[in-house]
Write a structure and sequence with these properties.
Largest sheet: 6 strands, mixed
Radius of gyration: 51 Å
EC number: 2.7.13.3
Helix content: 40-55%
Protein name: histidine kinase
Number of helices: 11
Strand content: 15-25%
Oligomer: single chain
Main location: membrane
CATH topology of the largest domain: Beta-Lactamase
Shape: rod-shaped
Pfam family, one: HATPase_c
Mean pLDDT: 79
GO molecular function: ATP binding; phosphorelay sensor kinase activity
CATH architecture of the largest domain: 2-Layer Sandwich
CATH class of the largest domain: Alpha Beta
């Protein structure tokens, strides 16, 4: 939610975040400064009040002992009305915010003015507060004993708002330069972020120079640590795209190569049917044309299947365990009409009722479809195909057998080569190559053996 409210720019977003942190820190320090300054001002002013009281006690000792009936005022009237006097007489305007009075036996002897300030608690020495109706005063009272049981009391007072004003001045003098400097700091942060993002601009410029026909890796000198994963990811993506384009080019070239001959044959059969002189010749040419179309269809299907498999095995998706026997029975049911044309029997066996293995279901279907289709082409009438599944400590095992025409021992190693057909002229030679690609994706061990007296054995060992 907070991310959506930030500017859609790294530079602006960084500036906002930095200045927000700076503002929050300044406010927090200002609050701490107010508390600390208020404490220090209170301490300083209280110490000054106590010092003034003791100094007054020493300087006015004669006035206290004289026992005058009328008090002596330092100022002619209350200092808050000093505006009517000359500055030379009234002094500083802050003098209206301080007060002292000396008492003897409850009567004022000497006072700064006629203002009556009496502490709220007057039963002992020390600090207190007083309120004369207009202002609150911070007071310090010092009591002493005189001869013959008499006593004196010195009260020094200072208006509380003076302290608050002093704290405000201290904080403002500390914070105001920072507030004035914020725009300058923002400019410097903006420039610094721009310098910090310069490698990103260089990376962007290099990416713009990449041509689709030349996907060269992006290599920058002195790449910041934060951009190293980005550069690696981009180079990895470029490599994947280059490999994908390469596969597509090879697929197009292979498809063109494999379809050139069948299409030429189809054209020849079509011409033969067109130029046929008798009905028998035309029907024969049309049958050959239909057979050629079927072969071309199988070639295209295998080419598309191979391209799909190559793209799928590059994806790293999480695998779920599936029941391999359930998939096997479904694939056999789908392909059974093809086997029934040659009356080929097929057996499926399992060492356990439920065999679970983590494999992509579509991949297992492609493996079984290609193995069964390959056996159907090479197995004679009334042949037999068997599919045996088993599980042991090493992993999942599949043994696929048929009693077809088999293959020479020297050609077993070529069965997974693309477009290798052996004695078969109807396919594209991609079925077992597709099986090999999928088994490699699962680190499966694929082995081909001769089945005696004839046929082929395919063993697949999927590791746990």
């Amino acid at each position: 939610m907070f991310q959506n409210k930030l500017p859609n720019s790294i530079k602006k977003r960084t500036l906002v975040l930095v200045m927000s942190v700076f503002a929050f820190t300044s406010i927090l320090l200002g609050i701490v400064g107010v508390i600390a300054a208020n404490h220090e001002v209170e301490e300083l002013f209280d110490a000054r009040l106590a010092q003034q009281a003791r100094l007054l006690l020493h300087l006015t000792n004669d006035d206290i002992n004289a026992g005058k009936d009328a008090p002596t005022f330092v100022y002619p009237s209350v200092i808050s009305d000093f505006e009517q006097y000359d500055v030379s007489e009234a002094g500083h305007n802050y003098e209206s915010k301080v007060h002292f009075s000396i008492w003897r036996n409850g009567k004022v002897v000497v006072a700064s003015d006629s203002l009556s300030i009496k502490p709220e608690v007057d039963d002992g020495n020390g600090f207190g507060y007083a309120d004369n109706g207009a202002f609150e005063w911070r007071t310090f009272e010092l009591k002493t004993s005189l001869n013959e049981g008499e006593n004196s009391r010195i009260v020094v007072a200072e208006r509380s708002d003076v302290r608050a004003e002093m704290v405000t001045e201290i904080v403002l003098n500390s914070v105001l330069p920072e507030l004035i400097g914020w725009p300058l700091i923002a400019v410097f942060v903006w420039m610094a972020v721009g310098v910090g993002l310069e490698p990103l601009k260089q990376l962007t410029s290099r990416i713009k120079l990449i041509e689709p026909s030349q996907l060269k890796p992006v290599n920058l000198e002195n790449v910041p640590q934060e951009l190293v994963p980005v550069q690696q990811a981009i180079n990895s993506l470029l490599l994947s795209i280059e490999q994908l384009i390469g596969r597509e080019k090879r697929w197009i070239a292979d498809a063109a190569h494999e379809l050139r001959t069948p299409l030429a044959v189809l054209r020849l059969h079509a011409q033969n049917a067109e130029s046929a002189l008798t009905t028998e010749e035309r029907e024969h040419a049309l049958k050959q044309l239909q057979s050629g179309v079927d072969r071309s269809t199988r070639i295209v299907a295998q080419l598309l299947s191979y391209a799909r498999v190559e793209s799928q095995i590059k994806q790293n998706t999480p695998l779920l365990s599936i029941d391999v026997m359930k998939v096997t029975r479904r694939v056999v049911a789908e392909l059974y009409p093809m086997l029934w044309e040659k009356r080929i029997a097929i057996e499926t066996n399992s060492s356990e009722d439920l065999l679970l293995y983590p494999i992509e279901e579509s991949h297992l279907e492609i493996i079984l479809q290609n193995l069964i289709s390959n056996s159907a082409k090479f197995t004679p009438q009334n042949g037999l195909v068997s599919i045996d599944w088993s599980m042991d400590d090493a992993g999942l095992n599949l043994i696929f057998k048929d009693n077809g025409s088999g293959i020479n021992e020297s050609d077993l190693s070529r069965l997974t080569e693309r477009f290798y057909r052996g004695s078969d002229v109807s396919g594209a030679g991609l079925g077992l190559s597709i099986v090999s690609s999928l088994t490699k994706h699962y680190s499966c061990n694929l082995t081909f053996l001769r089945n005696e007296p004839s046929g082929l054995i395919v063993q697949l060992k999927f590791p746990l």
